[in-house]
Amino acid sequence: MNIISTQTRQLSFEDIQEKKKKRYEQILERLGNREMTAKEIAVELFEIGLIPSNERNYTAPRLNELEKLGYVKIVDKKQCKWTGKKVSVYKQTTNAEKLVVANESHIPGY
Predict the structure, then answer these.
(1) What pLDDT, on the 0 to 100 scale, is given for residue 22?
(2) What distance in Å separates the CA atoms of residue 97 and residue 11, rounded to the nearest whole number?
(3) Which phi-psi region, left, alpha or beta, contains residue 93 (left: φ > 0; alpha: ψ -120 to 50)?
(4) What is the DSSP letter of 103?
């Protein structure tokens, strides 16, 4: 592989990591002590101008990653008022509370 291609790939990867961290922060801030779906979080982030659309695809992948990291958990399911489909409901774990207090130092890449 060409060295320029390798360098540009690395730069793109680093850019994505920064965006992921920012989205993690935004999601955890919106969740707070509430229980919310990916769509509900996306709608709120859109309404305050942090994402360009209220599509759940802006939050769902990050919620899956946060769940794997132990910062959120699925606590219920409910019918989405926008799609009518059954969806997962997320809540922060105590790890997420520690994460916020520790100034995000436990999020990978910080």
Answers:
(1) 87
(2) 31
(3) beta
(4) T
Low-confidence residues of the chain: pLDDT under 50: 101-110
Whole-model pTM: value is 0.76
Write a three-state SS string for 7-73: HHHHHHHHHHHHHHHHHHHHHHHHHCCCCECHHHHHHHHHHCCCCCCCCHHHCHHHHHHHHHHCCEE
CA quadruple 109, 69, 73, 23: dihedral, nearest 10? 20
**Per-residue pLDDT, 9:** 67
Give the C-alpha separation, 37 to 87, whole Å: 7
Cβ atoms of 92 and 71 within 8 Å: the answer is: yes
Helix axes 38-47, 3-31, angle to 10 degrees: 100
